[in-house]
Amino acid sequence: MKFTHRSGQRPLDGFTIKRGVGQGGFGEVYFAVSDAGKEVALKLLHRHQDAELRGIAHCLNLKHPHLVHLYDLRTDDRGAKWVVMEYVFGESLAQWINRYPTGLPADLVREWFTAIGRGVAYLHENGVVHRDLKPANIFVENGHLKIGDYGLSRRISLSQGGELTQGVGTPHYMAPEIKSGNYTQSIDIYACGVMLYEMLTGNPPFEGETPMEVLIKHLTDTPDLGKVPEPYKAVVARALEKDPAARHPTMRDFVRAVEEVGTAAASRPPATLPVGLLRTAVPVAPPPGVAGLAAPDPGPLPVARVPPVATPSRRFASGPIPVGLRDWLTQRLGSMALAPVVAGLCTAPFILFGTPQPWSLLGRMTLLATALSWGALAVARTPRDTPASGWARRFQMLFVGLFVGGLAFWLDGWAAPRGGAAVETGRDLMIGSWARVSPELFSTATRYTLYYGLAVAACPWWGMTDRRRKERFKFGRVVLAGMASGVLLFLWPWEHASAALGVAPLVIAAVTVQVVSPWAPPPPAPRPQAARGPARRQRQYA
Q: What is the pLDDT of residues 335-355, one digit of tens each?
């Protein structure tokens, strides 16, 4: 993908381009940093500048938690038009849908579609129709969704338009009536219905080899709702009606229907609380009430009296997001490939600041730390990351430690059991007719394996490999690994023990595992926003 500008250039005064992000029919998008250090996205307009600028002007002063914020419109020295806007770190909803070919988890669909719907409803209540809603224009940052790309947005109108009036948007998400030029909120409701269908099933309702074939299907065909989960069929069918008047009256009505279906399907009311009281646990934000555009809403019901229902295994936008098997394998294999490098670098302090150590000892330390890191990365976390007790995880890591102990036993030069007859004293342990084990060999091997098994099981490796940990690296976990192995080494009746091979591999592995494990930083705490009067407060947080 070739961009007009390269990293380090300053085509727009006050901003330095870092890299190109993407290209589309209207222009190019760059990731840039202002002279004050503000990270932004810069969009260079190429085609249909007047239409793009008109659409952006409609949304320039709109602010909502689920909309990409627009900062400014600028012109460079060559007369090119630029849009300065918020840069969202994360993937698009389209990428998330591709990761789940049979549909996103139902709870995730409910949370994310509700966020999308509230952002779209805010646009409608301010007299703007987006006209290009699709998963590629929805961005996910730490589970928080934002709607972007306002280039095709227009004022809500029933009149025939001018430039780009007909055939706008993406065919898979275009309402049947859009060819007439009627820019009402119904076309966004239809596009959101298509997105909801795709989020639930993994595919849009209509496919075709050409854009025209897809458009004809939107005009004539009835969507196949066989793949849609039963609770959502009626909601999706209404949103995809050919007649705009038969769809949900407003986007808030659409959102409310999805919330009610999703909440009913996700959980049943506990017997200890009245059903009427539990209904207040699903707040519905009221619209600011733009005349003629949105139906009146009684407002949110109080929720302070209802204790939250904990669902630790099914948290999404407000907590853990599931990772597919393919992504889990990719992350783990990449981490395992990087582990030997980090473990090798961690031996540098022993060379630079410690007493001279033989290279063979440093090599054994690195190998043991690498083997332990691989075991922790492979065992400590599962693809679905289902909750497990601490004892179950310690039991799993015990077997990893036993294996590492056997490896340490072999690396220290102890011979494996050999064939032959027992010595005359008869003290050797015979294993069938093919091997014999001396008492000294058996005792030493047992001490090696049990020491490493217990020392490894004492450390919280699952916390070090959790990609949603609060911090990527915690020095306290390294200290804990050193203390657990050091105390056990001090108490262990083992004359062959040494700090270099007893403590150092666990300490190095604790550093390595945290450095190479995938990490998704937690979402920032919401910033309080100033409000002028109750109406403005409702519009800000709707």
A: 888 888 888 888 877 666 655
